[in-house]
Every structure is written in structure tokens, then in C-alpha cells.
Amino acid sequence: MRCAAPRPVETVRHVVIHRDPFAYCAHPHLARLTDGTWLLVFNRSVRRRFILHPPQDPHFYNVTMRSEDEGRTWTVPEVAPGYDWHGVECAGLTTLRSGSVLLHQWRFRWHPLAAARQRADARDLVFPENLAAGLAASRELDAPRDIGASSDAMLPWARGNGGTFVHRSRDGGRTWAETHEIETRPYSGGYGPRGAVELASGQLLLPLSDVPEYRRIFAVRSVDGGQRWTAPAPVAAEEGCWFEEPAPLVLPSGRILVLLRENHTRELHQVESTDDGQTWSPPRPTGIAGYPAHLTLLPDGRILCVYGHRRPDYAIHAVVSQDEGRRWEIWDTRVVRGGLPNGDLGYPTSTVTTAGVVFTVYYCQDGTGVTGIEATTYWI
Predict the structure, then answer these.
(1) Which partner from 62, 122, 152, 194 sits 20 to 30 angstroms from 260, CA to CA?
(2) Using an 8 Å Cβ cutoff, are 89 and 164 in contact?
């Protein structure tokens, strides 16, 4: 049974990692590299009088920051893999046992509006009126009242389909020397804001959702460190459910646990595999009301799940499981960060410091309306 009010964690400190009054920064993912360095990736676009997320805005880049001292100080943000890679969705990072790190991203194709209307494939593009209609119907964002009548002025571009790419770095995410495309057909595309898992065999398993449909989950795998990827194989699909943003974790037993965002119920679901991702259990609800998730294996064997709570009290929440995700202790939900001003928040991602303290990064608005990347350290 869920308790009436989630209780606060024992907070150690709260920090602002990156704040830019001229930019909109959101959707972080944090990875610990083999040398102990922390690498953070998040989305950055221009700040507007109304909020757009990556499916509506060609100005989004993925940018990275590094910390050599477990989050006390950070380098300045740098675009990854380069300035040609704009109009992207949220990115995910994967640390390989070899020491390399992968960054995967979905990139839409974008076109200036006048040119788009003259293209031979114009019927396959998403134009401002369609983008505006989706924005007005969104449960995530507040659209201006006049966006329908002024869509061409507010959103002067058209969106095409795109591709899924993996970039490899051999110097800890400072540079990205290799790029490989992942073939996602017959799915519409492949998007995921969390990394792949590296199996005991050395294979990589990367679960993705079918952008821009955002309804089904599939997985691709690589046996050569991310250069080549197999054809996609189904992971989760169910009539009436809209699954996206999978969060995977390999457990000490070898089981693979994946939590899924579900956009109808706004409740996290999960699937599991006991054969290295060849087959999957049917999706089942977890009872966790929020999205999307990130999973961390704690030193004592518990699994920590952090997620955004986009209803009053607007907050970042955490729950744990002591039995490899078979049950989640939702009756003991913790508030990592509460009292946030609105639902423009979330995508928390965690690691554990050498002192055993949890460090959770997320995005949120501050009191002046600037959306940036912040973090809380706490005991759980």
C-alpha cells in the first residue's frame, strides 16, 4: 500500500551543475567511466517564451560535461559529437569494460519551411500545423494559446524522419572519432535516453523505442563494441499502451531488467529477460506513478529507481527494490527533491560516490523560470 506522503531522503547537498539564462537545458544522463570520471550528457536549445522539446525543435544539441572529482566541479558544456549533429533527441551513454564510451542519439531531419513545402516528399514531413496540434494536446508542455493560428511563425520548419547513430570515444568522451548508424527497420526509428548494457559475453544490448511513434520497444545488439548492430528484435508492445524510454539494468544473477515509460497510464512498466535478451516477459505495471526511470545497483544489492513526478508536489522521487525488481517498495517512496515550481522536470539519473552517497542528476526550473541541470546527493 502506498503511504499518504512520500518521505524525504537524508539530503547531503544540492548543487546547480549548469544554468544558462539564454538556453533551455534538460534530459540528462550520467555515466561513470572506467577511470572513475563522470560523464554527463543533456539536451540544450535556445530559451523561448514557451517550451519545446526535441520532437518540435531543430535547435537541440546533445552536450557533455565531465567531472573528475565526483560531481564537485564540472567542465564547461561541449557539443557532442559536433555542431553538425543538431535536431536530436535525448542521448544515452554506455561505458564499456574496454574503457571506451558510446553515445547514441536519434537525429531528425529538419527543413526550412518554404523549401519543405516544395519537396517531392512533402507528404511525409511534419509541418508546423501538425507540430502545433501535438504541442497543444501535450500533457507535458503548456503551449501558447495562439499557437494554432500562428504555427508558421512560431515553428517555421518541417520535420522529417531521421536515423539512429552511435558515436564512439576512446578518450573518455573528449572526442568522438567513430560514428556508426543503427538500422532500425521495420520500426520507424530508434530512440532511448539511457545506455546499452554490456553482457557477461561482452555483447552490447541496447533497448530503444520506435521514434517518432513512441509506442513499442525493441533491442539491437553488437558483438564488436558498437561498430555493427543486429537487426532489431521486439521487447515490449501491447495494445492500448504507448511504451518508450526504456531503462535497462543487468542484475547480479544475469537477469536483465528494463523499466518502461507508458504514456497512457503514466505508470512505469517493466519487462525481464533470463536469456540475455533473446526473449522477454510480458510488460507489467510496477505501481510506480511517474516517468521516465533510471536504475542503479546499490552497493548493498538493492536496486534504486529514480523518476520524475510531474504532478503536485512536483518532485524527483526514488524507490528501491530488495529482490532484483520483483517488488518495488512504493509504500516507502522517497522525495529526492521536492517543491519544484512546475512539471518541467525530471529525467533523473544516478550514480554512487566512493563514500556510498547517491548522486542524482535531473533537470528542473528555478525560481526565475530558467530550466537547467541540477543534482542532489543523499543517503538511501
Answers:
(1) 62
(2) no
Q: Which of 208, 166, 172 is nearest to 95 (CA)?
A: 172
Length of the chain: 380
State which amino acid sits at residue 278: Q
Could you tell me which residues come within 8 angstroms of residue 372 by beta carbon, excluding any fewer than 6 positions away?
A: 16, 17, 18, 19, 20, 25, 363, 364, 366
The whole-number pLDDT of residue 138 equals 84
Kindly report the three-state secondary structure assignment for every residue of 45-102.
Answer: EECCCCCCCHHHCCCCEEEEEEECCCCCCCCCCEECCCCCCCCECCCEEEECCCCCEE
Q: Phi and psi (nearest 5°) for 165?
A: -130, 145
Do 240 and 246 contact (CB within 8 A), yes or no?
Answer: no
Question: Using CA atoms, how far apart are residues 177 and 175, in angstroms rounded to an integer?
Answer: 6
pTM of the model: 0.96
The pLDDT score that the predictor gives to residue 92 is 98
Q: Which residues contact 160 (CB under 8 A, 6 or more apart)?
A: 108, 109, 110, 111, 121, 124, 125, 126
**Could you write out the three-class secondary structure of 312-337?**
CCCEEEEEEECCCCCCCCHHHCEEEE
Q: pLDDT tier at 142 (50, 70, 90 boundaries)?
A: confident
Going 188 to 104 to 315 to 57, the CA torsion angle's sign is negative
The rounded mean pLDDT for the chain is 96
Q: What is the pLDDT of residue 1?
A: 43
Domains of the chain: 7-379 (2.120.10.10)
